[in-house]
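Entry under discussion copied across for reference:
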Amino acid sequence: MKNNSIKKLIAIVIVVFAYQSCSDDFIERVPVYSIDSENYFNSEDDYYNALIASYDLLQATYVNAMLGEIASDNTLCGGGDATDVIGFQQVDDMIHTSVNSNLRDIWNWMFAGVNRANYLLEFQDKTDFEGKEIIIAEAKFLRAYYNFELVKWFGGIPIKVDQRFALGDEKIIPRSSTEEVYALIESDLQFAINNLSYTAPQVGRATKGSAQALLGKAYLYQDKFTEAASVLDNLIINGPYDLVEDYDSIFEHLGENGVESVFEVQYTDVEGAGFDCLQCSEGNVAVGFNGIRNYNGPLFDSGFSFNVPTQDVVDEFEPGDLRKDVAILDIENWAATTGATYGTGYEHTGYFNRKYIARKGDLNTGDQNLTNPNNYRSIRFADVLLMAAEAFNRGGINDGKAQLYLNRVRNRAFGNTDNEVSVTGSALTEAIYHERRVELVGEGHRFFDLVRTGRGSEIDGFTPNRNELFPIPLEEIQFANGNWEQNPDY
Protein backbone atom coordinates (compact mmCIF):
# COMPACT_ATOMS: atom_id res chain seq x y z
CA MET A 1 0.00 0.00 0.00
CA LYS A 2 1.07 3.58 -0.61
CA ASN A 3 2.49 5.13 2.54
CA ASN A 4 2.65 8.87 1.92
CA SER A 5 0.04 11.30 3.19
CA ILE A 6 -3.33 11.37 1.49
CA LYS A 7 -3.28 15.16 1.95
CA LYS A 8 -0.51 15.43 -0.63
CA LEU A 9 -2.05 12.92 -3.00
CA ILE A 10 -5.41 14.66 -3.10
CA ALA A 11 -3.59 17.80 -4.16
CA ILE A 12 -1.63 16.22 -7.02
CA VAL A 13 -3.60 13.30 -8.39
CA ILE A 14 -5.32 13.89 -11.73
CA VAL A 15 -8.53 11.91 -11.98
CA VAL A 16 -10.42 11.77 -15.26
CA PHE A 17 -13.97 11.65 -13.97
CA ALA A 18 -17.09 13.21 -15.38
CA TYR A 19 -17.83 14.75 -11.98
CA GLN A 20 -14.44 16.39 -11.45
CA SER A 21 -15.34 19.82 -12.88
CA CYS A 22 -16.23 22.89 -10.84
CA SER A 23 -19.88 22.33 -11.65
CA ASP A 24 -20.18 19.24 -9.42
CA ASP A 25 -23.89 18.72 -9.04
CA PHE A 26 -26.45 16.09 -8.01
CA ILE A 27 -26.48 15.22 -11.72
CA GLU A 28 -23.85 16.66 -14.06
CA ARG A 29 -26.09 18.33 -16.60
CA VAL A 30 -23.57 18.48 -19.45
CA PRO A 31 -20.91 15.76 -19.05
CA VAL A 32 -17.65 16.76 -20.71
CA TYR A 33 -16.19 13.27 -20.79
CA SER A 34 -16.58 9.99 -19.00
CA ILE A 35 -14.78 6.75 -18.37
CA ASP A 36 -16.47 3.38 -18.75
CA SER A 37 -15.59 0.01 -17.32
CA GLU A 38 -13.77 -1.01 -20.49
CA ASN A 39 -10.88 1.39 -20.02
CA TYR A 40 -10.81 1.96 -16.27
CA PHE A 41 -10.78 -0.05 -13.03
CA ASN A 42 -8.30 -2.45 -14.59
CA SER A 43 -5.58 -2.03 -11.96
CA GLU A 44 -4.96 -1.25 -8.31
CA ASP A 45 -3.88 2.28 -9.30
CA ASP A 46 -7.23 2.90 -11.02
CA TYR A 47 -9.14 1.97 -7.86
CA TYR A 48 -6.72 3.94 -5.72
CA ASN A 49 -7.10 7.09 -7.82
CA ALA A 50 -10.87 6.72 -7.72
CA LEU A 51 -10.64 6.52 -3.93
CA ILE A 52 -8.54 9.69 -3.80
CA ALA A 53 -11.19 11.43 -5.92
CA SER A 54 -13.81 10.31 -3.41
CA TYR A 55 -11.83 11.83 -0.55
CA ASP A 56 -11.39 15.08 -2.44
CA LEU A 57 -14.95 16.34 -1.84
CA LEU A 58 -14.35 16.27 1.91
CA GLN A 59 -12.50 19.53 1.41
CA ALA A 60 -15.77 21.16 0.34
CA THR A 61 -17.25 20.47 3.79
CA TYR A 62 -15.73 23.71 5.05
CA VAL A 63 -19.11 25.34 4.38
CA ASN A 64 -20.94 22.63 6.38
CA ALA A 65 -18.74 23.37 9.40
CA MET A 66 -19.21 27.14 9.11
CA LEU A 67 -22.98 27.04 8.70
CA GLY A 68 -23.34 24.47 11.48
CA GLU A 69 -22.19 27.29 13.77
CA ILE A 70 -23.79 30.28 12.02
CA ALA A 71 -27.21 28.57 12.03
CA SER A 72 -26.93 28.05 15.79
CA ASP A 73 -26.80 30.31 18.83
CA ASN A 74 -22.99 30.06 18.96
CA THR A 75 -22.13 32.64 16.31
CA LEU A 76 -23.44 35.44 14.15
CA CYS A 77 -22.79 35.51 10.43
CA GLY A 78 -20.63 38.66 10.44
CA GLY A 79 -18.73 39.55 7.28
CA GLY A 80 -18.42 42.97 5.71
CA ASP A 81 -22.07 44.04 5.70
CA ALA A 82 -25.62 42.69 5.74
CA THR A 83 -25.35 41.53 2.11
CA ASP A 84 -21.91 39.90 2.36
CA VAL A 85 -22.55 36.26 1.33
CA ILE A 86 -26.29 36.71 1.51
CA GLY A 87 -26.92 32.96 1.80
CA PHE A 88 -24.96 32.84 5.07
CA GLN A 89 -26.83 35.90 6.34
CA GLN A 90 -30.20 34.32 5.60
CA VAL A 91 -29.31 31.09 7.41
CA ASP A 92 -28.11 33.11 10.41
CA ASP A 93 -31.45 34.93 10.58
CA MET A 94 -33.46 31.74 9.83
CA ILE A 95 -35.06 33.41 6.79
CA HIS A 96 -33.47 31.16 4.18
CA THR A 97 -35.55 29.77 1.33
CA SER A 98 -35.02 27.16 -1.37
CA VAL A 99 -33.16 29.83 -3.35
CA ASN A 100 -29.89 29.94 -1.43
CA SER A 101 -26.60 29.39 -3.22
CA ASN A 102 -24.73 28.24 -0.11
CA LEU A 103 -27.28 25.58 0.80
CA ARG A 104 -27.24 24.55 -2.84
CA ASP A 105 -23.45 24.14 -2.54
CA ILE A 106 -23.88 21.71 0.35
CA TRP A 107 -26.43 19.70 -1.63
CA ASN A 108 -24.34 19.65 -4.82
CA TRP A 109 -20.95 19.02 -3.26
CA MET A 110 -22.10 16.26 -0.92
CA PHE A 111 -23.90 14.50 -3.78
CA ALA A 112 -20.74 14.84 -5.84
CA GLY A 113 -18.94 12.98 -3.05
CA VAL A 114 -21.63 10.28 -3.00
CA ASN A 115 -21.39 9.89 -6.76
CA ARG A 116 -17.62 9.52 -6.72
CA ALA A 117 -17.84 6.82 -4.07
CA ASN A 118 -20.64 5.12 -6.01
CA TYR A 119 -18.50 5.18 -9.16
CA LEU A 120 -15.83 3.11 -7.46
CA LEU A 121 -18.39 0.79 -5.87
CA GLU A 122 -20.16 0.30 -9.19
CA PHE A 123 -17.06 -1.50 -10.48
CA GLN A 124 -15.87 -3.00 -7.21
CA ASP A 125 -15.91 -6.55 -8.62
CA LYS A 126 -14.16 -5.83 -11.93
CA THR A 127 -10.52 -6.39 -10.93
CA ASP A 128 -9.01 -8.26 -8.01
CA PHE A 129 -5.82 -7.33 -6.17
CA GLU A 130 -4.44 -7.67 -2.68
CA GLY A 131 -5.91 -5.14 -0.27
CA LYS A 132 -8.91 -4.21 -2.41
CA GLU A 133 -11.27 -4.79 0.52
CA ILE A 134 -9.64 -1.81 2.28
CA ILE A 135 -10.34 0.49 -0.66
CA ILE A 136 -13.94 -0.73 -0.87
CA ALA A 137 -14.39 -0.23 2.87
CA GLU A 138 -13.06 3.33 2.69
CA ALA A 139 -15.36 4.10 -0.25
CA LYS A 140 -18.31 2.90 1.82
CA PHE A 141 -17.15 5.00 4.77
CA LEU A 142 -16.99 8.05 2.51
CA ARG A 143 -20.41 7.39 1.04
CA ALA A 144 -21.75 7.13 4.59
CA TYR A 145 -19.99 10.38 5.54
CA TYR A 146 -21.50 12.33 2.63
CA ASN A 147 -24.94 10.76 3.07
CA PHE A 148 -24.84 11.61 6.78
CA GLU A 149 -24.17 15.24 5.90
CA LEU A 150 -27.05 15.21 3.43
CA VAL A 151 -29.58 13.56 5.74
CA LYS A 152 -28.84 15.84 8.68
CA TRP A 153 -29.16 18.95 6.49
CA PHE A 154 -32.04 17.94 4.21
CA GLY A 155 -33.73 14.86 5.67
CA GLY A 156 -34.69 12.05 3.27
CA ILE A 157 -32.75 12.14 0.02
CA PRO A 158 -32.68 10.09 -3.18
CA ILE A 159 -30.31 7.16 -2.80
CA LYS A 160 -28.74 4.84 -5.34
CA VAL A 161 -26.63 1.96 -4.13
CA ASP A 162 -23.36 1.08 -5.89
CA GLN A 163 -24.33 2.95 -9.03
CA ARG A 164 -23.73 6.47 -10.22
CA PHE A 165 -26.65 8.83 -10.52
CA ALA A 166 -27.41 9.48 -14.17
CA LEU A 167 -29.26 12.23 -16.00
CA GLY A 168 -32.97 11.56 -15.64
CA ASP A 169 -32.72 9.72 -12.31
CA GLU A 170 -34.12 12.75 -10.56
CA LYS A 171 -37.42 12.13 -12.36
CA ILE A 172 -37.73 8.46 -11.42
CA ILE A 173 -35.82 7.91 -8.14
CA PRO A 174 -37.91 9.15 -5.20
CA ARG A 175 -36.63 10.69 -2.02
CA SER A 176 -35.97 7.86 0.40
CA SER A 177 -37.17 8.23 3.96
CA THR A 178 -34.79 9.39 6.65
CA GLU A 179 -34.89 5.87 8.09
CA GLU A 180 -33.87 4.35 4.76
CA VAL A 181 -30.95 6.74 4.40
CA TYR A 182 -29.74 5.94 7.89
CA ALA A 183 -30.09 2.21 7.16
CA LEU A 184 -27.68 2.58 4.23
CA ILE A 185 -25.30 4.65 6.38
CA GLU A 186 -25.34 1.99 9.09
CA SER A 187 -24.74 -0.81 6.56
CA ASP A 188 -21.83 1.03 4.94
CA LEU A 189 -20.21 1.76 8.28
CA GLN A 190 -20.61 -1.80 9.56
CA PHE A 191 -18.80 -2.99 6.42
CA ALA A 192 -16.05 -0.42 7.01
CA ILE A 193 -15.68 -1.48 10.66
CA ASN A 194 -15.34 -5.12 9.66
CA ASN A 195 -12.74 -4.47 6.96
CA LEU A 196 -10.58 -1.64 8.31
CA SER A 197 -8.03 -1.57 11.10
CA TYR A 198 -7.22 1.15 13.63
CA THR A 199 -4.07 2.02 11.66
CA ALA A 200 -4.60 3.69 8.28
CA PRO A 201 -2.46 2.84 5.23
CA GLN A 202 -1.75 6.58 4.98
CA VAL A 203 -2.21 9.51 7.31
CA GLY A 204 -5.62 11.03 6.71
CA ARG A 205 -7.46 7.94 5.50
CA ALA A 206 -10.43 6.42 7.31
CA THR A 207 -9.92 3.70 9.90
CA LYS A 208 -11.98 1.24 11.90
CA GLY A 209 -12.15 3.91 14.61
CA SER A 210 -13.44 6.54 12.17
CA ALA A 211 -16.22 4.20 11.11
CA GLN A 212 -17.11 3.26 14.69
CA ALA A 213 -17.31 6.91 15.73
CA LEU A 214 -19.46 7.91 12.75
CA LEU A 215 -21.74 4.92 13.30
CA GLY A 216 -22.15 5.87 16.95
CA LYS A 217 -22.98 9.40 15.88
CA ALA A 218 -25.54 8.17 13.33
CA TYR A 219 -27.17 6.06 16.04
CA LEU A 220 -27.23 9.02 18.43
CA TYR A 221 -28.91 11.22 15.83
CA GLN A 222 -31.69 8.61 15.65
CA ASP A 223 -32.01 8.28 19.46
CA LYS A 224 -30.77 4.69 19.21
CA PHE A 225 -29.04 5.03 22.54
CA THR A 226 -28.32 1.37 23.24
CA GLU A 227 -26.65 0.88 19.87
CA ALA A 228 -24.73 4.16 20.19
CA ALA A 229 -23.52 3.34 23.69
CA SER A 230 -22.33 -0.10 22.57
CA VAL A 231 -20.28 0.97 19.55
CA LEU A 232 -18.84 4.08 21.20
CA ASP A 233 -17.95 2.24 24.40
CA ASN A 234 -16.17 -0.40 22.32
CA LEU A 235 -14.21 2.32 20.55
CA ILE A 236 -13.25 4.04 23.81
CA ILE A 237 -12.08 0.83 25.46
CA ASN A 238 -10.39 -0.88 22.51
CA GLY A 239 -9.37 1.97 20.23
CA PRO A 240 -5.98 3.72 20.19
CA TYR A 241 -7.31 7.21 20.97
CA ASP A 242 -6.88 9.44 24.00
CA LEU A 243 -7.22 13.07 25.05
CA VAL A 244 -4.10 15.13 24.50
CA GLU A 245 -2.90 16.86 27.64
CA ASP A 246 -2.84 20.36 26.14
CA TYR A 247 -6.15 21.39 24.58
CA ASP A 248 -4.43 24.32 22.88
CA SER A 249 -2.20 22.02 20.84
CA ILE A 250 -5.11 20.31 19.05
CA PHE A 251 -5.81 23.16 16.66
CA GLU A 252 -2.26 24.09 15.74
CA HIS A 253 -0.38 22.65 12.77
CA LEU A 254 1.72 20.35 14.93
CA GLY A 255 -1.45 18.96 16.51
CA GLU A 256 -2.88 17.60 13.28
CA ASN A 257 -3.66 13.88 13.09
CA GLY A 258 -2.67 13.34 16.73
CA VAL A 259 -3.82 10.78 19.26
CA GLU A 260 -7.10 12.65 19.80
CA SER A 261 -7.92 12.70 16.09
CA VAL A 262 -10.45 10.06 15.09
CA PHE A 263 -11.03 11.57 11.65
CA GLU A 264 -9.69 14.76 10.07
CA VAL A 265 -10.39 16.40 6.74
CA GLN A 266 -6.96 16.95 5.22
CA TYR A 267 -6.10 20.35 3.76
CA THR A 268 -3.02 21.69 2.01
CA ASP A 269 -1.77 25.06 0.74
CA VAL A 270 -1.57 24.01 -2.92
CA GLU A 271 -3.08 26.63 -5.21
CA GLY A 272 -5.93 25.72 -7.54
CA ALA A 273 -9.06 27.65 -6.66
CA GLY A 274 -10.70 31.03 -6.89
CA PHE A 275 -13.79 32.56 -5.37
CA ASP A 276 -15.70 31.31 -8.43
CA CYS A 277 -14.85 27.70 -7.54
CA LEU A 278 -14.34 27.40 -3.80
CA GLN A 279 -14.81 23.63 -3.76
CA CYS A 280 -11.76 23.43 -6.02
CA SER A 281 -9.58 24.71 -3.18
CA GLU A 282 -7.22 22.26 -1.56
CA GLY A 283 -7.12 24.58 1.47
CA ASN A 284 -9.56 25.19 4.30
CA VAL A 285 -11.61 28.11 3.00
CA ALA A 286 -13.39 28.53 6.35
CA VAL A 287 -10.15 29.67 8.01
CA GLY A 288 -9.96 32.77 5.81
CA PHE A 289 -13.66 33.47 6.18
CA ASN A 290 -13.39 33.25 9.98
CA GLY A 291 -10.33 35.51 10.19
CA ILE A 292 -9.86 38.94 11.77
CA ARG A 293 -10.75 41.81 9.43
CA ASN A 294 -7.85 44.09 8.43
CA TYR A 295 -5.60 42.58 11.06
CA ASN A 296 -2.04 43.76 11.68
CA GLY A 297 -0.18 42.18 14.56
CA PRO A 298 1.46 39.03 15.88
CA LEU A 299 0.46 35.37 15.51
CA PHE A 300 -2.62 35.74 13.27
CA ASP A 301 -3.37 36.72 9.67
CA SER A 302 -6.27 38.73 8.31
CA GLY A 303 -9.59 37.37 7.08
CA PHE A 304 -13.19 38.31 6.40
CA SER A 305 -14.68 38.32 9.95
CA PHE A 306 -17.46 35.78 9.41
CA ASN A 307 -18.78 33.30 11.99
CA VAL A 308 -18.16 35.53 15.02
CA PRO A 309 -18.91 34.04 18.47
CA THR A 310 -21.72 35.54 20.53
CA GLN A 311 -21.47 36.83 24.08
CA ASP A 312 -23.85 34.05 25.04
CA VAL A 313 -21.43 31.27 24.13
CA VAL A 314 -18.53 33.13 25.73
CA ASP A 315 -20.52 33.36 28.97
CA GLU A 316 -21.21 29.61 28.81
CA PHE A 317 -17.63 28.88 29.91
CA GLU A 318 -17.22 28.38 33.65
CA PRO A 319 -14.53 30.19 35.64
CA GLY A 320 -11.26 28.31 35.39
CA ASP A 321 -12.11 26.56 32.12
CA LEU A 322 -8.82 26.53 30.20
CA ARG A 323 -10.59 26.01 26.88
CA LYS A 324 -12.09 29.49 26.74
CA ASP A 325 -8.98 31.33 25.54
CA VAL A 326 -8.19 28.56 23.08
CA ALA A 327 -11.65 28.55 21.52
CA ILE A 328 -12.43 32.27 21.67
CA LEU A 329 -10.16 35.16 20.71
CA ASP A 330 -11.14 38.33 22.58
CA ILE A 331 -9.75 40.78 20.05
CA GLU A 332 -10.00 43.85 22.29
CA ASN A 333 -7.94 42.23 25.04
CA TRP A 334 -5.53 40.82 22.48
CA ALA A 335 -5.02 44.21 20.86
CA ALA A 336 -4.52 45.90 24.24
CA THR A 337 -1.91 43.29 25.18
CA THR A 338 -0.01 43.05 21.88
CA GLY A 339 -0.58 46.39 20.15
CA ALA A 340 -2.33 44.67 17.25
CA THR A 341 -4.79 46.64 15.12
CA TYR A 342 -7.90 45.36 13.39
CA GLY A 343 -11.06 46.42 11.61
CA THR A 344 -14.63 45.76 12.69
CA GLY A 345 -17.04 44.04 10.34
CA TYR A 346 -20.77 43.55 10.32
CA GLU A 347 -22.23 42.23 13.60
CA HIS A 348 -18.85 42.64 15.28
CA THR A 349 -18.99 40.99 18.70
CA GLY A 350 -15.37 41.45 19.73
CA TYR A 351 -14.77 37.69 19.45
CA PHE A 352 -13.36 35.33 16.83
CA ASN A 353 -13.30 31.56 16.40
CA ARG A 354 -9.69 31.10 17.44
CA LYS A 355 -9.63 27.39 16.57
CA TYR A 356 -10.00 28.13 12.89
CA ILE A 357 -8.46 31.49 12.03
CA ALA A 358 -5.28 31.90 10.00
CA ARG A 359 -1.93 31.84 11.80
CA LYS A 360 1.21 33.49 10.54
CA GLY A 361 3.80 31.00 9.37
CA ASP A 362 1.37 28.07 9.17
CA LEU A 363 3.06 26.80 6.01
CA ASN A 364 0.62 28.64 3.77
CA THR A 365 2.32 29.63 0.51
CA GLY A 366 -0.83 30.55 -1.38
CA ASP A 367 -3.82 32.83 -0.84
CA GLN A 368 -4.39 32.66 2.93
CA ASN A 369 -8.13 32.92 2.36
CA LEU A 370 -8.36 29.93 0.02
CA THR A 371 -5.43 27.64 0.64
CA ASN A 372 -4.99 27.53 4.39
CA PRO A 373 -3.61 24.10 5.36
CA ASN A 374 -5.42 23.90 8.72
CA ASN A 375 -7.13 20.48 8.87
CA TYR A 376 -10.73 20.25 10.02
CA ARG A 377 -10.93 18.01 13.09
CA SER A 378 -14.15 16.30 12.05
CA ILE A 379 -14.34 13.74 14.87
CA ARG A 380 -12.25 14.14 18.01
CA PHE A 381 -11.94 11.65 20.86
CA ALA A 382 -13.46 14.23 23.22
CA ASP A 383 -16.56 14.21 20.98
CA VAL A 384 -16.63 10.40 21.17
CA LEU A 385 -16.49 10.52 24.98
CA LEU A 386 -19.32 13.06 25.14
CA MET A 387 -21.46 11.15 22.63
CA ALA A 388 -20.97 7.99 24.69
CA ALA A 389 -21.83 9.87 27.89
CA GLU A 390 -25.02 11.15 26.28
CA ALA A 391 -26.02 7.70 25.01
CA PHE A 392 -25.48 6.05 28.41
CA ASN A 393 -27.41 8.82 30.17
CA ARG A 394 -30.28 9.55 27.79
CA GLY A 395 -30.78 5.86 27.14
CA GLY A 396 -31.15 5.21 30.90
CA ILE A 397 -28.32 2.70 30.63
CA ASN A 398 -25.60 3.73 33.06
CA ASP A 399 -25.26 7.21 34.56
CA GLY A 400 -22.05 6.18 36.32
CA LYS A 401 -20.34 5.47 33.02
CA ALA A 402 -21.81 8.68 31.58
CA GLN A 403 -20.23 10.62 34.47
CA LEU A 404 -16.91 8.86 33.92
CA TYR A 405 -16.69 9.85 30.26
CA LEU A 406 -17.99 13.37 30.86
CA ASN A 407 -15.47 13.94 33.64
CA ARG A 408 -12.55 12.78 31.50
CA VAL A 409 -13.31 15.77 29.29
CA ARG A 410 -13.87 18.15 32.20
CA ASN A 411 -10.70 17.15 34.02
CA ARG A 412 -8.65 18.06 30.96
CA ALA A 413 -10.58 21.31 30.61
CA PHE A 414 -9.81 22.50 34.15
CA GLY A 415 -6.48 20.80 34.70
CA ASN A 416 -7.73 19.14 37.89
CA THR A 417 -10.45 16.87 39.30
CA ASP A 418 -12.15 19.58 41.35
CA ASN A 419 -14.90 20.21 38.81
CA GLU A 420 -16.22 16.70 38.28
CA VAL A 421 -19.96 16.21 37.78
CA SER A 422 -21.81 13.91 40.17
CA VAL A 423 -25.45 14.59 39.26
CA THR A 424 -27.65 11.98 37.56
CA GLY A 425 -30.76 11.85 35.39
CA SER A 426 -31.94 15.00 33.65
CA ALA A 427 -29.40 17.15 35.52
CA LEU A 428 -26.64 15.00 34.05
CA THR A 429 -28.22 15.37 30.60
CA GLU A 430 -28.02 19.16 30.93
CA ALA A 431 -24.40 18.91 32.08
CA ILE A 432 -23.53 16.86 28.99
CA TYR A 433 -25.28 19.38 26.73
CA HIS A 434 -23.29 22.18 28.36
CA GLU A 435 -20.05 20.29 27.95
CA ARG A 436 -20.65 19.58 24.27
CA ARG A 437 -21.22 23.28 23.68
CA VAL A 438 -18.02 24.54 25.29
CA GLU A 439 -15.80 21.62 24.21
CA LEU A 440 -16.88 21.73 20.56
CA VAL A 441 -17.66 25.41 20.00
CA GLY A 442 -16.55 26.58 16.57
CA GLU A 443 -16.41 23.05 15.15
CA GLY A 444 -19.75 22.97 13.33
CA HIS A 445 -21.85 20.69 15.57
CA ARG A 446 -24.00 23.08 17.59
CA PHE A 447 -27.03 23.54 15.28
CA PHE A 448 -27.48 19.81 14.85
CA ASP A 449 -26.99 19.13 18.56
CA LEU A 450 -29.82 21.55 19.31
CA VAL A 451 -32.15 20.16 16.66
CA ARG A 452 -31.65 16.46 17.38
CA THR A 453 -32.30 17.04 21.11
CA GLY A 454 -35.43 19.13 20.56
CA ARG A 455 -33.86 22.43 21.62
CA GLY A 456 -33.99 24.29 18.31
CA SER A 457 -36.13 27.04 19.82
CA GLU A 458 -33.03 28.30 21.64
CA ILE A 459 -31.99 29.73 18.25
CA ASP A 460 -33.31 33.21 17.45
CA GLY A 461 -35.82 33.04 14.61
CA PHE A 462 -36.15 29.25 14.71
CA THR A 463 -39.58 27.97 13.67
CA PRO A 464 -40.45 24.49 14.99
CA ASN A 465 -41.53 21.92 12.39
CA ARG A 466 -39.75 23.93 9.72
CA ASN A 467 -36.20 24.88 10.58
CA GLU A 468 -35.13 21.42 11.76
CA LEU A 469 -34.29 20.80 8.09
CA PHE A 470 -33.06 22.99 5.28
CA PRO A 471 -34.84 23.29 1.93
CA ILE A 472 -33.86 21.24 -1.08
CA PRO A 473 -32.55 23.71 -3.70
CA LEU A 474 -35.36 25.00 -5.90
CA GLU A 475 -33.69 23.96 -9.15
CA GLU A 476 -33.44 20.36 -7.91
CA ILE A 477 -37.17 20.34 -7.18
CA GLN A 478 -37.76 21.74 -10.66
CA PHE A 479 -35.47 19.19 -12.32
CA ALA A 480 -37.31 16.41 -10.48
CA ASN A 481 -40.52 17.58 -12.17
CA GLY A 482 -42.84 16.69 -9.32
CA ASN A 483 -40.95 13.56 -8.21
CA TRP A 484 -39.64 15.13 -5.01
CA GLU A 485 -41.65 17.05 -2.43
CA GLN A 486 -40.01 20.06 -0.80
CA ASN A 487 -39.38 20.01 2.94
CA PRO A 488 -42.30 21.40 5.02
CA ASP A 489 -43.03 25.13 4.88
CA TYR A 490 -40.39 25.93 2.24
Remarks:
- Confidence is low (pLDDT under 50) at residues 8-33.
- The first strand starts at residue 75 and ends at 78.
- Residues 282-374 form one domain.
